[in-house]
Design goal:
Two copies of one chain form a homodimer. Chain A has helices at 7-14, 18-25, 32-45, 51-58, 74-89, 103-115, 133-138, 164-176, 192-203, 220-228, 241-253, 289-303; strands at residues 63-68, 93-98, 120-124, 143-146, 158-162, 181-187, 207-213, 236-240, 263-269, 282-286, 312-316, 318-321, 347-348. Chain A is an alpha/beta fold. In chain A, strands 1, 2, 3, 4, 5, 11 and 13 form a seven-stranded mixed β-sheet that branches. In chain A, strands 7-6-8-9-10-12 form a six-stranded mixed β-sheet, sandwiched between helices. In chain A, helix 5 (74-89) links the parallel strand 1 and strand 2 (93-98). Chain A binds a DNA duplex through helix 2 and helix 4.
DNA sequence: CTGAAAGCGCTTACAG
DNA sequence: CTGAAAGCGCTTACAG
């Protein structure tokens, strides 16, 4: 028995030509008897087609490349998980590479995947000059940015994450409960979804206050104390999961009733559920994996010629989940309660840390 | 200009044969003038060799597959990041797949990579029957388990993580400071490194106490209170990073001096540094990525015939980092202080949650 | 329904 | 140092 059976071996043993064997295994026209025989022999020999030969002949490799700027953060991980699973269902395999934050490496990795003849390329939070992009375009290989784009990748199609819907649901609910002033706990290390929340809230008719805090464990008691001393008091606090939990506990310690006197909303990454707390927090739950699922489906549609991929696609990755920390506010309520127009959307494009915004 | 230049195009334009062009580009014997000319033309045309054709001819694909049982946890992510970067340096690309926790999928993904003709396969925390393994062996393609192995994968080589050295360093230091009783904060959802610490400590001459806690935010005050009431008191607490931070704060609130009356050691994943606290915690810092680096280097050595890969390799992934939470204990010290033999090692094999151990 | 043959793009022993 | 040729394993129009 040869180390690796080829189609030739199968054909020989089945007493047919390679052409017939090929057709039988690819499920094309062939009479039932030979088909059965060929399949049987193939199984016997453990025959598996040689992908390299097939790719050479078929031009396409059924392989997609993904170059990550970083690969060790939550977002990238969840994206990758979803992407690889979704692509797998369409029969595509994923080649992965990471630039580890180095611009030049990003470009060089993109270039290197050209040799692998990937059928398409995902650039996750790309940076660099995109020198190889023209070659991809010339060869008709789509190069799609995920989450964000910058530098030389500005003209590529983009699939980005948005939490617009979830935030608007949360805001609408807050207003219906009588809230007018929402506070955002804002760590130094800016968080994309948190900033997105802030901007969307600002465009709504709610008053938004920012509580700037240091990274690391938050001084929840300090924040709550200063908040309670405000004249027109903030009645909702929005914070990243970790901080939200601490606020919840601190409120308890300070005898501030949640949600009677204060509502708390957490912004939580899906992966955090693993280490999860069981506090009944209201939250905006993020599923960045949805970008991967959408990206896979959009790409395959494009490759099949069923749709065209260009411009930007915003994928809603937020879910609004109401827990026990959303209460009615009447006491602190201001006099006017004018109707508020629907807030415009906002795309949360990437998660690169350290981007300055005011 | 053709969409994709082939070697034939390059040769034609350079006025040489494909053979010569091939040799020139692969840096083999050729006269300097033609070599220069060929390279020039190749650059002009943006020529990049077709990997499929090359693989077909060379038998090897310079591609490695990695099948993950899960891909959304810290460990897998850090492993992948390191693995992909290390392999890249050796010229190998990585194909990724995830079984998403489903046993049958694991097997089927392993099988599917056979078609891609991967030169080697990594099985990360594999589960399932390993039905395709015999075929890999027959084809001389190494299939290596990472972190752990089980089921049908029991006979494959394994590269696992160990924190033996870091724990022994920590224990030695604790003893030198006079500690004799170490407490382990043990959440329901068992943590591999924490359990490993516990077992190694038990085999040393220290007394080990377990504080079983629920998942989610720990009741640090409760734990500390009950600890302070013990007769022969625990003087060191070992906990996962999140819990350790809370213990530190609770000790502060209860006026328990750290490290004067209590030492605290955190077990921390490298990725957690991102969201990091700046508390001067003593810690065992985990870098599971080292398994990836070692795996890549061991594999490449094996493929080059420079070494053989079999049995188990334990990669030390822990670093002992002493911060400000390690203090001298004299008050609670017991009478005897017999010499303690070196503790035997312990391999921390995987991170599958829910494995029952007593 | 089946087979012989061409060809995808590369590399490498073999002559020259 | 260079070129012609064979062949890696597959698929698919083309005859039969």
């Amino acid at each position: 028995m040869k180390v690796r059976a080829t189609l030739h071996d199968v054909a020989e043993r089945a007493g047919v030509s390679v052409a017939t064997a090929s057709r039988a295994l690819s499920g094309r026209k062939s009479n039932k008897k030979t088909l059965g025989r060929v399949r049987e022999v193939a199984a016997e020999l453990g025959y598996v087609a040689n992908g390299a030969a097939r790719s050479l002949r078929n031009v396409r490799t059924m392989t997609v490349g993904a170059v990550f700027n970083q690969l060790h953060d939550h977002l990238s991980t969840e994206l990758l998980d979803a992407l690889v699973s979704a692509l797998d269902q369409y029969g595509y395999s994923l080649l992965v590479a990471t630039a580890q934050g180095v611009e030049e490496r990003f470009d060089s990795l993109v270039h290197r995947f050209r040799e692998r003849r990937v059928d398409a390329l995902f650039c996750v939070n790309p940076s660099g000059k995109g020198v190889a992009l023209a070659r991809y375009a010339a060869a008709g290989v789509p190069a799609i940015c995920l989450f964000s784009k910058s530098g030389g990748y500005e003209n590529q199609p983009l699939i980005a994450a948005s939490i617009h819907e979830a935030v608007n649901l949360a805001l609408a609910r807050l207003r219906s409960l009588g809230h007018q002033i929402v506070g955002v706990i804002r760590p130094r290390r800016r968080s994309r979804p948190l900033e997105a929340f802030r901007e969307i809230a600002r465009k709504s008719c709610m008053t938004v206050r920012s509580y700037e805090v240091h990274d690391g464990p938050i001084d929840a008691v300090g924040v709550l104390n200063s908040m309670m001393n405000e004249q027109q008091r903030t009645t909702v606090l929005v914070a990243l999961q970790t901080d939200a939990v601490r606020l919840f506990e601190a409120a308890d310690a300070l005898s501030i009733l949640v949600p009677g006197a204060l509502s708390i909303i957490a912004i939580r990454n899906r992966a955090q559920q693993m280490t999860g707390t069981r506090l009944p927090l209201s939250m905006i739950l993020l599923s960045p994996g949805r970008v991967g699922v959408e990206a896979a489906s959009a790409l395959v549609g494009h490759l099949r010629g069923e749709r065209t991929l260009w411009g930007s696609i915003a994928v809603e990755v937020g879910s609004w989940i109401e827990g026990g920390t959303m209460g009615t506010i009447t006491t602190v309520r201001a006099a006017t309660s004018a109707e508020c127009p629907a807030a415009p959307g906002h795309v949360w494009r990437d998660h690169a840390a350290g981007t300055k915004r005011s």
